[in-house]
Write a structure and sequence with these properties.
globular; alpha/beta; single chain; five-stranded parallel beta sheet; about 210 residues
Length: about 210
Amino acid sequence: MTDLMELGEGADRARVREVGVEVAPHTWAFGAPPDPAAEAPAGEAIGKFLRTIRNEFGFVIVDASVDYSDSALVCFDLSDMICLVTSLDVVGVKHLSKALDTLLTIGLPRERFRVVLNRADSKVGLDASDVERVMKIRVDAMIPSSRLVPTSLNKGRPVVLEEPGSEVAQAISSLATRFAGSAGQVGELGGTEVVDDRKQQKKKGLFARSGKS
C-alpha cells in the first residue's frame, strides 16, 4: 500500500498492478504497511490511494480498522457500502450497535450499512433476530463457522478459492454476488463467483468492512 501511495493519483495501470499481489485472476491485493509500529498514513494519503485503485478496478474492498481514525473515516466516507461484522455475543453486538450510532451521528447514511454475522451458527443463546432488535437494522448475511477459514488463511488463499464448494465459501460468495450483482458484472472462477475487473467500465464500487471477524 505504501508503494502505491507514493505513485499518486493518475498512476499507470500496469504500475498499479505491479505494486499489488494478484491473488486470483483479475483480483489484486494491496497490504498494509509491514511495520505495525510505523506511523499510520494520513487520511488524505489514504483517500488518494483509494481513488487511485478505484479508477483501476471495478470493485474495491477495504478491511478497515475498528477505530475512528482519519484513515478509517476516509474509507467510510468514500464507500458505497459498509459491512459491519459481528458475532453472536452480547459484547460484540453492543459495541457494533454503538459504532453504528456513532457513524450515523457523523453523517454517514444508514442505507450504506450492511450487517454481517460471523460464526452465525454458534449455539450461544442469541440469533439474528436479537441482533436486528438491538441494532435496529436488518442482518444481511450469515457466515457459518468453519475450520476451513483459518486453514485457507494459513495457506495464503481465500477460502472461496481454496474450498469453493464449502458452506462458508458459498455464504461469502452469496454476499459478494448480491453486492456485485447490482451492477450485473460478476465473472465466474473455479466454481465460485468473483469480480472480473475487465468488465467494469462505468460502475466503480468501494466497500469498507469494519467490526469483529
